Write a sequence for this structure.
């Protein structure tokens, strides 16, 4: 399994995403924002950080990077794509996922260990979880409030496309406590919390996040 | 060179925690009579004379604002 | 507009110069004239005045800080690869790894503009660590504020915390600890100390020097603007009549751009990896004045700088302003001529502006030109290292005895049934309450190496993923104890940080400090300072670990009232396997036995 | 009720990393001819009729803007 991990100027969690891929026995392939091809990878992770400083809006500048054009094309053909935190923001800006992420309702950056409920286990990134399972992973963001218009929210809920929901307190004002969503075909997933920081109890609160990367292994092998 | 202003505001139906925080703080600071506050972004651009209104609209819509959550207004300023 | 050149200075020896407004004393100005054999140009005056300031020259503290080196034994020095005098101390932690760490203060700017002051404080210390050739790995932020319920604390505290977090989070540096302490003496003078720790392979240690005639000086990073040159604008008044009024109002506030710094870090690390750098210096306080004079005086030749090549952000800047600008996110490298193209290519990859602004020359002068005219021609050591040295008067404060006589013995003992209330009062007091409101705004997870962070006694990061070797860090200081007895107070700070590191499972190996005090012109403050330095140094001898560097911040006072003497001490420890860390806390399992060690 | 707009901008001599990031991105996105961009904040307030200009100036100066690094303009909008 070869998984591309994109680095934009200002990306921070690319090393963590690559490490998580390795923990799941995959090979992490570095992709540079200016690349015009995906080097034959089986899946792509858009990691967290502050691409281009998050100036203007988080993800607004990154979505125009050459490598994102390739990601959009590949996603259309069904390649699994995971956006974590800033990566989620980039995927929304690139219209691979609906809605937008806005400033936290309390206006502060929040770093905390956050409980999430896994609500959809049919995606390329969540098949290893049990439906309704609660997992503990770090959340660290200043613009994590998920917003979408009423129709979009109804569609996401109706189609079961809310993948992760905050439990034990909504940390940022997200509509419907949404922490992560998926595309209509279940191949593209974006979430604000950081599963790649929860792969080893030595450096994270748990290893609950490993499930996403192991799920991908199944998705790629069975494809 | 022309001067252009673009104002970008959260859509009315979108939560605006920043504006709300300002509105809540004002009475505490002794300023009364402010019924509501909304906060957005203000851009000032210097553009070449051959940049037409269509191009400016495009820049605002596809880049400066996120139409999912924001409205925007483009104005040319007379020098 | 005419530029004050060396030739012009020679021809107009009697021209009045605003040296007093720039903070120079009569005898200091006379000494500059003696060194140069003429009056300084505006640009030279700007350079000397910032470099001879208390902040850059350590003129009041130098004679005392010597005591750290004098008391450091060879045995203590054994693991030290760079010590006091370098940008930051460096220690060998085994397996070929070297750790560099240092703390610095950004107190006054954080009072004026809390967010940007704190943000640029973090930015500055991170560049110090980078300039040693290391990858910055984590930050810590010992903070002091006025009373938690004071109105100004509401302005200062949220801004400072947001600034530390905003900048550090955006750089991808986990925040692994710090302090939040409230006391009335900090009300008009909060303390923002920032510590950064970095790691490198021992052979990659880069020291700041500009050796090798013909080597090029390359300035890279952000453009140079009017940031932080409030003081020097008095020089502009003579040449810039109509705008002078406006310029004078320039605030000495610098605005940070953490994104540019993040890119600068990755770009610099790639330059080091490709071995394209002979020497390097960060640009912090005193900007190019500091970088050029320090690089030149640490090298084996002279230096020539074409100042008009510096990329500017503002129109009409004078040479003095360019030299004094404190624009952030800039570095200065010494590069072999044959490596310049490769150097530029790496910078282009990262979209970092890089400009060849000069070269190392034969001889021993630092010569700076502005459109082909010489505006600076000085022996660089006289700017960087041979500033004034003061033996300030020292006197034990008159109220010291009275203060010490006022012991807890005079206080009523709480009755048994009052104890619970007392405990509750204590737990709810700002100095003992949870610091989560602050620490929750800091990313402690980024880059996946954080093994311990808040609320642990010390922060711990893994340095090597293959061996699990790591380091632990703690900073501490109790200003109230230090006020009562500066000698013992500094030792208590050291002992507390030492214990915090030891209890996490690491072996303490080195010490840094950030010594925050009132005005050195107050003999009582100088006594506190002298005592604290002695106490800390003697304590280090007793524990057998060296002070590898530090920072002094004087003039922390509001009117005549000095802050509590606050010698913040940071202790670094090594642990050969971070999986054996000891987390803080008791009661994780039923049946644990509590043991009290010591008296 | 009156509508009031307050625009807050970084002072000209102060670094504006946000505006710079936008300006740098535009040519990459295929938009040429934009010589400079500065980014600030835009506030829209609804205020009671008895709030006078002096009060608005005070609110802008002491709260909406940070006079150390920002300039501001207050405008009343005709309904
Ligand atoms: N400004 C700060 N930045 C980061 N961490 C902090 C800060 N202040 C306190 N902490 C962390 O919070 C925890 C608790 O702090 P504190 O209550 O001061 O503990 P202690 O009294 O044991 O030193 C420690 O891990 C400390 O490092």
């Amino acid at each position: 399994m070869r998984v591309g991990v994109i680095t934009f100027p200002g990306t921070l969690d690319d090393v963590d995403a690559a490490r998580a891929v390795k923990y799941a026995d995959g090979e992490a392939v570095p992709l540079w924002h200016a690349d015009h091809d995906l080097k034959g990878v089986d899946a792509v992770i858009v990691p967290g950080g502050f691409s281009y400083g998050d100036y203007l809006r988080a993800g607004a500048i990154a979505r125009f990077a050459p490598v994102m054009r390739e990601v959009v094309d590949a996603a259309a053909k069904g390649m699994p794509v995971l956006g974590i935190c800033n990566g989620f923001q980039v995927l929304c800006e690139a219209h691979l996922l609906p809605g937008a992420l806005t400033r936290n309702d309390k206006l502060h950056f929040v770093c905390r260990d956050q409980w999430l409920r896994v609500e959809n286990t049919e995606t390329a990134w969540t098949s290893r979880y049990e439906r309704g399972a609660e997992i503990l992973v770090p959340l660290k963001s200043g613009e994590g409030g998920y917003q979408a218009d009423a129709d979009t929210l109804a569609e996401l809920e109706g189609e079961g496309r809310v993948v992760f929901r905050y439990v034990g307190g909504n940390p940022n004002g997200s509509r419907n406590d949404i922490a992560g969503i998926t595309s209509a075909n279940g191949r593209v997933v974006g979430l604000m919390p950081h599963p790649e920081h929860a792969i080893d109890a030595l450096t994270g609160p748990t290893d609950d996040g490993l499930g996403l990367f192991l799920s991908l292994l199944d998705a790629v092998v069975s494809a | 060179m022309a001067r252009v202003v673009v104002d970008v505001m959260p859509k009315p139906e979108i939560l605006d925690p920043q504006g709300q925080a300002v509105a809540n703080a004002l009475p505490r600071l002794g300023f009364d009579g402010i019924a509501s506050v909304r906060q957005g972004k203000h851009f000032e651009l210097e553009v070449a004379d051959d940049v037409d209104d269509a191009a400016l609209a495009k820049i605002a819509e596809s880049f400066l604002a996120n139409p999912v959550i924001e409205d925007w207004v483009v104005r040319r300023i007379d020098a | 507009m005419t530029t004050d050149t060396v030739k012009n200075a020679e021809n107009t020896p009697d021209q009045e110069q605003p040296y007093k407004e720039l903070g120079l004393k009569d005898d200091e100005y006379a000494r500059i004239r003696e060194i140069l054999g003429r009056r300084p140009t505006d640009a030279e005056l700007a350079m000397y005045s910032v470099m001879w300031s208390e902040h850059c020259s350590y003129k009041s503290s130098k004679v005392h800080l010597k005591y750290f080196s004098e008391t450091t034994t060879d045995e203590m020095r054994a693991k030290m690869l760079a010590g006091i005098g370098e940008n930051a101390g460096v220690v060998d932690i085994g397996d070929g790894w070297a750790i560099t760490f240092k703390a610095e203060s950004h107190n006054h700017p954080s009072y004026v503009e809390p967010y940007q002051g704190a943000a640029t404080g973090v930015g500055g210390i991170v560049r110090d660590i980078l300039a040693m050739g290391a990858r910055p790995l984590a930050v810590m932020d010992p903070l002091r504020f006025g009373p938690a319920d004071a109105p100004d604390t509401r302005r200062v505290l949220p801004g400072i915390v947001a600034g530390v977090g905003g900048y550090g989070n955006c750089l991808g540096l986990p925040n692994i600890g710090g302090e939040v302490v409230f006391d009335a003496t900090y009300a008009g003078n909060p303390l923002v100390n920032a510590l950064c720790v970095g790691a490198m392979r021992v052979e990659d240690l880069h020291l700041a020097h500009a050796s090798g005639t013909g080597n090029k000086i390359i300035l890279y990073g952000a453009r140079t603007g009017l940031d932080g040159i409030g003081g020097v604008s008095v020089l502009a008044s003579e040449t810039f009549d109509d705008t002078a009024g406006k310029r004078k109002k320039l605030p000495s506030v610098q605005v940070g751009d953490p994104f540019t710094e993040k890119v600068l870090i990755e770009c610099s690390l790639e330059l080091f990896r490709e071995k394209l750098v002979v020497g390097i210096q960060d640009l912090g306080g005193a900007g190019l004045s500091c970088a050029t004079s320090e690089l030149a005086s640490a090298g084996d030749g002279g230096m020539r700088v074409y100042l008009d090549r510096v990329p500017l952000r503002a129109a009409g800047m004078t040479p003095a302003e360019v030299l004094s600008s404190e624009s952030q996110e800039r570095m200065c490298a010494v590069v072999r001529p044959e490596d310049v193209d490769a150097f530029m290519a790496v910078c282009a990859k990262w979209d970092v502006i890089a400009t060849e602004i000069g070269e190392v020359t034969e001889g021993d002068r630092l010569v700076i030109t502005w459109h082909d005219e010489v505006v600076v021609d000085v022996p660089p050591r006289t700017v960087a290292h041979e500033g004034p040295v003061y033996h300030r008067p020292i006197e034990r404060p008159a109220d010291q005895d009275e203060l010490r006589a006022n012991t807890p013995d005079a206080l009523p003992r709480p009755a048994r049934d009052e104890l619970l209330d007392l405990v509750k009062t204590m737990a709810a007091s700002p100095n003992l309450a949870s610091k989560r409101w602050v620490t929750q705004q800091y990313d402690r997870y980024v880059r996946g190496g954080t093994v311990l962070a808040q609320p642990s006694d010390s922060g711990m990061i893994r340095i090597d993923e293959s061996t699990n070797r790591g380091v632990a860090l703690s900073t501490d200081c109790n200003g109230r104890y230090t006020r009562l007895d500066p000698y013992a107070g500094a030792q208590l700070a050291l002992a507390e940080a030492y214990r915090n590191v030891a209890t996490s499972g690491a072996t303490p190996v080195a010490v840094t400090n950030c010594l925050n005090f009132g005005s050195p012109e107050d003999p009582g403050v100088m006594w506190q300072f002298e005592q604290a330095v002695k106490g800390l140094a003697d304590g280090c001898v007793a524990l057998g670990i060296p002070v590898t560097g530090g920072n002094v911040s004087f003039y922390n006072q509001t009117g005549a009232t000095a802050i509590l003497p606050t010698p913040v001490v940071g202790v670094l420890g090594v642990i050969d396997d971070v999986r054996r860390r000891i987390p803080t806390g008791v009661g994780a399992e039923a049946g644990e036995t509590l043991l009290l060690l010591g008296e």
Remarks:
- The CA atoms of residues 26 and 32 of chain D lie 7 Å apart.
